[in-house]
Design brief:
three-stranded antiparallel beta sheet; alpha+beta; five-stranded antiparallel beta sheet; single chain; 260 residues
């Protein structure tokens, strides 16, 4: 069910978006539409120059002090936009469909269950459960999908992977296959593949090396069925292989990374 003109006008008055954007979003039958304020903090370092990589739509505030950080200084980045919810768990299809329709300079992104906690004030269990049935989608003003990774400063400190390292890896993969960066966070990243590399086993090995937590703390094997217990998954996790990761990539044409 599409939103009323009055509901759309209320949000349109808060966000500097072209009217066409709201029409495109309304065609997805959103159940809610609200203003989005994405905020990310970078450490204040000489090498941190967000002005060089991010568009002018990102608000930048330097020398910010946060509570309980020992006096460290940060750069605050804020990216305004809108977010909406749709009654489907297939967020990737919605995001890709929007990207094919939105005017240049607008980018649709996935918002995971952690964003649900922040934006909709849901507790952890509710956010996790609702994200399995419904999707939260954001639309912001970015020019390139790599700017999603740059804005969030996505990195994996435990694996000595900087934001630049992650972007370099993605650009290397881009020479082997075609994919879209769907969304992410400070230590998370989601990709949707249009094609996979010809040598899929070698690619899966590289994916695992890039993000060991994908299999060390997650499960990529075949579905175990509705009656599967935590013990069943724990046993299956111990037995999964890189070949299972190949099957997972082929089955889903998407992968979500997180570095714990």
């Amino acid at each position: 069910m599409a939103l009323s003109p009055e509901q759309i006008q209320e949000i349109a008055a808060q966000v500097d978006f072209e009217p066409e954007v709201f029409s495109i979003i309304n065609a997805e039958s959103p159940t809610l539409l609200r203003k989005l304020e994405l905020v990310q903090y970078w450490y204040e370092e000489e090498s941190a120059q967000p002005e060089q990589t991010l568009p002018a739509t990102v608000q930048i505030q330097r020398n910010v002090e946060l509570e309980r950080t020992g006096g460290d200084r940060f750069i605050k980045l804020q990216l305004d936009g809108i977010f909406f919810e749709v009654d489907t768990p297939d967020a990737i299809s919605v995001v890709l469909r929007l990207r094919s329709k939105l005017p240049k300079g607008y980018m649709s992104i996935t918002l995971d269950y952690q964003r649900r906690e922040q934006l909709l004030k849901e507790d952890f269990e509710a956010a996790l459960g609702n994200s399995a049935e419904r999707s939260l989608i954001g639309v912001v003003k970015l020019e390139d999908h790599y700017q999603i990774v740059q804005f969030f400063g996505t990195a994996a400190g435990n694996y000595e992977l900087s934001n630049a390292d992650i972007i370099d890896k993605l650009r290397a993969w881009e020479k082997l296959c075609d994919f879209e960066i769907m969304g992410g966070g400070g230590d998370t990243l989601e990709l949707a593949f249009k094609t996979l590399p010809e040598n899929r086993l070698a690619f899966a090995e590289d994916v695992y090396d890039f993000c060991p937590d994908l299999m060390d703390q997650g499960y990529v094997g075949p579905p175990l069925g509705e009656g599967a217990t935590m013990e069943d998954y724990a046993e299956a996790m111990d037995e999964q292989t890189v070949e299972d990761l190949v099957d997972y990539l082929e089955r889903n044409m998407a992968v979500g990374f997180w570095w714990d």
